Amino acid sequence: MQSSNLNNGLEQSARVMRLLGWGLIIGMALAAFVYSPGFLWGSLPAGFPQLGPAHPESPYNGLHPYIFMMATLYLAWAILMIRGANDPKANAALFDFGILANLLHGLIMIPLAFIYPNERAHLYADIPLLFVICAVLWIWHPIRMTPAATRTR
To answer: What angle do CA 11, 139, 102 make, to 5 degrees?
Structure first.
């Protein structure tokens, strides 16, 4: 019975790893067309809602360097989550990294959203999403999904 619970819990952790990994990859691809406005086309398209003040001008027609930095970090993490789903317990550090990195990222963005008016849209867009990712990773962490008697860390 305990082995069944162990396998079921780790299967749930593996499923979360795959869903999060593929969700990040697909989400980033979709976000390139929706957020941030002007990322692909350099300015807001006709009829696109203005969510707040525009980001400062970039010398590259709206292609802000920090977007590429964040996208590559999340892409690397997504790939590792997909690969790590084969053995969630051995790759539990990916959950730890995801919880800590997203929590710190969200916490630092909160004061920045109040300091810089052009960053306010983050308060109701990606900041809540970062905390949801933290919660999902916390709940389905492979260490929490295994019975206490079988945990080794």
So the answer is: 110
State yes or no: pLDDT of 49 exceeds 70. no
Give the integer Cα–Cα distance in Å for 124 and 109: 11
Peptide bond connecting 3 to the previous residue in cis, omega within 30 degrees of 0 = no
- Of 131, 113, 111, 132, the C-alpha closest to 123 is 113
133 vs 144: CA distance, rounded Å:
16
Q: CA-CA distance, 74 to 77, in Å (whole number)?
A: 5
Amino acid letter, residue 72: T
The residue to which tokens 């027609």 are assigned: 61
Of 103, 94, 97, give the one whose Cα is nearest residue 142: 94
pTM higher than 0.85 for the full model? no
